[in-house]
Amino acid sequence: MPANSDIRRAADRAVTTTPWLKSRHSFSFGDHYEPNNTHHGLLVVNNDDVLAPQSGFDTHPHRDMEIVTWVLEGELTHQDSAGHHGVIYPGLAQRMSAGSGILHSEKNDSLTQPVHFVQMWVIPDESGIPPGYQQHEIGHIGSELVTIASGIPGRDAAITLHNRDAALHGARLQPGDTVTTPDAPYLHVFVPRGRVALDGTDELAEGDAARITDGGGSRLTATEPTELLIWEMHAKLGG
What we know:
The protein is mainly β. Helix content is about 0%, strand content about 55%.
């Protein structure tokens, strides 16, 4: 099935920089608004964040959003108004359903180590659901795609999503390892670290992404140690 790949380079992302945060945005976010870059498929946020030690996001609100957080290095402490508390570290999948409304904070409590994480948002199938929280340790992630989060019926995953058309997969590849993207009308391939060749032609370096439509089965081959995050989506916003 032919696929169309829209390659988005790391250097072209909008960046929010403060004394304690460096956040790189794949889509419009906050003050960085681009009318032609608001989502791909069902994915509306893909933020690549580094928090300095002893810093973080103070308590703030969210509503009607499925928020998945994936930590690459360090530890991130989550606390919310529904009484959930958790420490997220590499290999632990976490999802917060903002639903009808929730307040939460995210902190780096380390005295010395930054925390590097990717936070991804998809809109749920239904608005106004009760807020929720889920985390689950995946453990070893290797050269095959592991389903981190999914709302697709019948699909096993570490954590669930309240969206029946979306799933998130991850892999950690060594040079020469190859994975094949799922078959879906909308795919978002993000390389938070490392480097891969896409179908033997386009190269995706650290921070690059490929927005793939009209096909699956693309081959990604690592040319250095690499971590991949791939969204499989069977619908798009607005229909």
